[in-house]
Write a structure and sequence with these properties.
single chain; 437 residues; mainly alpha; Farnesyl Diphosphate Synthase; 14 helices; 48% helix
């Protein structure tokens, strides 16, 4: 499971978190019902935004059903979006196609265990099945999978070319997400929303790509892998400026949408995306603390969520980071990403504050433990995991709170609106109406 939008159960009103879980479990069960148990591994937190957007425009297009007990929910039943919902099917198609592209990227690069011929062969066959399944499911709801396939292929070509600007490198991701978001308007019968949804998709795609790049700076520098920020010489301050501009554009695009049930969309694509940006930039030196950037959104700015990374990583090719440290780049200097002066990767570096507690073993042990982690929804954590030894609720993906200390408002006990005009989010306590609605 990967993505940048992962809400805290403490920060969402109870009904909104229940709705989010309905879409998450609905996507997982759609993948199982349509493509088998193995397909559940590609469940994508950002992918379920597609299902959320369809329901926000036409709630009747996302029927619910009572699902039975599931180990990933602590052996509890739940109301979930049905597999026949077109939003869930589009989310499943998107998740499968992206997972296929990522797996093929690892095989092509020979990353880690993928350098072994047998592993690469098996992974390639699995990617082919996921790609075909995603294409079939997408076509069933009228979505052309060629858009995503072309974007994945173009991404690799751009990274290999070198000499391009940062926004040129994020363009394929922006285009792919824009196409998927716009198609939710078609599924909901709200074609007039398509243009604004495409614009929202472009900005969200840019944010997701940049957040992933910032999170991967240190490991990419250590491995010599391609990172768009390093390759273009983009420093922390400029990267944050690009993210703030995209947040502003996303907010404006969302404001233009006609939504029958907007509360969950506002909570996820408004507040939670900004929290993800604040979280990933919280540790870099030389920049203003969260809250000192241009304020384009009324949502609180907190950043407690664990890192996610859905986008393929390529070996370092083409453009290289500029040598030396000028105080704003990656190679060192005060406030840079990669060296002295407190930059990430150097003395005094802040970073994300997380790291494995033990030495990660070599292949194939991580493959076996990773399977157990997925089967237990994160409850089992190997000793080299940063979550090893934590309470069960802090290990489980479905209940993990704020990854190191929760300072978001506790709205989990909200039950009913009291005339606050918040479009029926279901809250009346602790001022959370002004947060989620």
């Amino acid at each position: 499971m990967f993505g940048v939008v992962r809400p805290c159960r403490h920060g969402l009103c109870g009904t909104l978190f229940k709705d989010w879980m309905a879409h998450l479990c609905g996507l997982c069960l759609t993948l199982r019902d349509e493509h088998g148990q193995a397909a559940r591994l590609v469940t994508n937190y950002d992918g379920l935004l597609v299902s959320v957007l369809v329901e926000a425009q036409r709630p009747d297009r996302s029927p619910r059903r009572k699902a039975g007990r599931c180990a990933l929910r602590g052996m509890k039943g739940a109301e979930v979006v049905t597999a026949r919902a077109e939003g869930a099917q589009l989310a499943a198609a998107t998740s499968l196609l992206l997972a296929a592209g990522k797996t093929r990227d690892h095989v092509a690069d020979g990353d880690g265990p993928y350098a072994r011929r047998l592993v690469a062969s098996a992974a390639g066959r699995m990617a082919g099945r996921w790609d075909a399944a995603g294409g079939r499911t997408g076509a069933a709801v009228g979505f052309d999978p060629a858009v995503l396939r072309a974007a994945i292929a173009r991404q690799g070509a751009l990274e290999a070319a070198g000499g391009l600007g940062l926004l040129e490198l994020t363009e394929p991701t922006e285009t792919a997400v824009a196409a998927v978001f716009a198609h939710t308007a078609v599924l909901a019968g709200k074609e007039h929303n398509a243009e604004s949804l495409a614009e929202a998709g472009r900005f969200f795609g840019r944010l997701a790509h940049l957040i992933d790049a910032v999170e991967d700076v240190r490991p990419d520098l250590a491995a010599g892998a391609f990172n768009p920020l390093v390759a273009t010489g983009t420093g922390p301050a400029e990267a944050r400026r690009h993210c703030d501009d995209a947040l502003h554009g996303l907010r404006l695009a969302l404001a233009d949408l006609e939504l029958e049930s907007p509360a969950l969309v506002r909570a996820l694509l408004g507040r939670e995306v900004r929290r993800s940006v604040d979280r990933v930039f919280a540790g870099y030196p030389g920049g203003p603390p969260p809250g000192q950037y241009p304020q384009h959104s009324p949502y609180p700015q907190q950043g407690p969520y664990p890192p996610q990374g859905p986008y393929p990583q390529q070996p370092q090719q083409g453009a290289q980071p500029p040598p030396g440290g000028d105080g704003s780049g990656w190679g060192g200097g005060d406030g840079g990403w990669g060296g002295g002066g407190g930059g990430w990767g150097g003395p005094g570096g802040g970073g994300s504050g997380h790291g494995p507690s033990g030495q990660r073993p070599g292949f194939p042990l991580p493959c076996f433990t990773g399977t157990v982690v997925c089967m237990t929804c994160g409850v089992f954590q190997p000793e080299w995991s940063k979550h090893h030894g934590q309470d069960c609720s802090d290990r489980c993906w479905c209940s993990r709170a704020c990854d190191g200390g929760c300072d978001c408002p506790d709205c989990s006990g909200c039950s009913g609106c009291d005339g606050c005009g918040c479009d029926g989010c279901g809250c009346e306590c602790c001022g959370c109406c002004c947060i989620d609605c």
